[in-house]
Amino acid sequence: MKxxxxxxxGHFANGxxxxxxxxxxxxxxxxxxxxxxxxxxxxxxxxxxxHCKKWVKIPGDNLHTGSPxxxxxxxxxxxxxxxxxxxxxxxxxIERRKKIQDHKIKECPSCGHAYNVYHQWxxxxxxxxxxxxxxxxxxxxVDPAAVVMRRIEISRHFGGSAExxxxxxxxxxxxxxxxxxxxxxxxxxxxxxSNKRQRMIRRKRFVKRIxxxxxxxxNTMWTDYVGGHYRMDVHSLLEAVTGTPYQYLLYNGxxxxxxxxxxxxxxxxxxxxxxxxxxxxxxxxVELLIKNGMDNMVMDHIRKRGCANAICxxxxxxxxxxxxFTKQDLKDILDYNSRQTCSxxxxxxxxxxxxxxxxxxxxxxxxxxxxxxxxxxxxxxxxRLYDWSxxxxxxxEKVLAYCLQGKAGRYSHAMGDWLDYISDAACIGLNLEDxxxxxxxxxxxxxxxxxxxxxxxxxxxxxxxxxxxxxxRKRLFCWKGTDYFIRPAESAEELAAEGMALxxxxxxxxxxxxxxxxxILFVRSNSQPDKPLYTLETYKVRGAxxxxxxxxxxxxxxxxxxxxxxxxxxxxxNSSTLLxxxxxxxxxxx
Length: 590
Ligand SMILES: [Zn+2]
Known about the structure:
Helix 12 (349-361) packs across helix 13 (368-375), helix 14 (379-391) runs parallel beside helix 16 and helix 16 runs parallel beside helix 18. By secondary structure, the chain is of the alpha+beta class. It is built from 22 helices and 16 strands. It has a six-stranded mixed β-sheet with strand order 10-9-8-7-6-11, sandwiched between helices. It has a five-stranded mixed β-sheet with strand order 3-2-1-5-4. A five-stranded antiparallel β-sheet has the order 12-13-14-15-16, sandwiched between helices. The longest helix has 35 residues, at 443-477. The protein has three domains: 18-128, no CATH class; 130-331, no CATH class; 462-585, Aminopeptidase (3-Layer(aba) Sandwich). It binds zinc ion (ZN). The site of zinc ion (ZN) has 8 residues, from loops.
């Protein structure tokens, strides 16, 4: 049923009590907006204190220190430079800043507070104008179980005349009503200039959304985008909820309020408290979650960091809300949380969502503690473990238990070690039907053994391949003339020796040569068969061998007759019927 404006208004107190005004003054205005204003050029000892709103006499020359806003900026810069050890700041600048600091604070003889001195004629007073917000809480005037909140905007105007130096205007901008079993009712009061007389009037209207100022709730920012700085009266909140169902907000030593302290929500728009009260109004079972040590989950949900499918937040009862979990799970959560020193390590909604999904898809009997540990590693590695277990015809639970036995550190390491081992073992054809091979006693040792065999096998395969390609090369590339002969290099060592003797880089081709990716031939004189003379690289381009490189000592080009001789040799190789041997015998050389 829709609430009438009159009924709604009945829950709220009107006007601005002394407590409200005091809170505004103490929490924001005193800090950032109050100052001592000197209005008379001739008599700088006469000043107006904007805090106690009295004319006072301050002895001394009372230099102008700038507006509070300017000084706030200056302070920030100073803090930055102090932090950086004044590195790089010029001497004069340091002096200037110190002088401002010295002159800055003057004590008001009436109220005793210290403020900046401000010469009225030096600046436009309008610069000091500003709007701030506070929120104050109270019990409802008609419903003892309901709680209300008001957001009040305070505009400060620094008028020009001596008699009216500073004026504060209090305007109520928002009202919230929280009742058990009902959706939160929110009313906004907005400035409206669109009327006939073009005069500002305030319109009140109900708003469905209760959280449109989320951007204000950050721990580094306490600026209210509507009106400057923002403060919430925490004491009024504590008083308002006491004795109402909402007092569970304070359960466990006021954990929610502590959340505020920790994340500096107190300075900000109380978005999370508003969201919590709204959630709790419709779902009182949230109290049981909090009492059972799941307050983190509630907080995650409110801060929209949770996982939608772990707890059913729309449920009517606690039973249906946590229906995906057993009693033992809930006991485990309590148990686990009580053992953590920091509430950040408590079981989160993400952990629970992980548990539910893991049980559904892979591990029907997974327990909560494993889920908490595993959820922080993610699903990827668990999926691989599951796949391998299935491939090997093993129960995934058994493999998981084997991996995690006695492992205190990161679970992903234990699982990763096994996955690396098992894929390598499969690669060398280890008998994986033997349980001792699948789940070895010492996985590190077993893996080292497998790796050794892999390296040995690789080398053996390469040797085999080289031997076979050498047979083909010898048949293809051996030739003997009257003065010179040509033959392929026999080994990597021979290549290195050739490169060293002729001072060129052919030694670096050994790897390619062994793998059959190119061919290196020696051109030598018949009279001195062991003396390196010219080195020839040849490989096939579009089915025919070419002279890729022919180099002598220090990469020198050979004489024309040698080049001619080599070219006609390559022509003969290309016309040879031996060319097809490689294909038939499945030996591939470049
Ligand atoms: Zn004063």
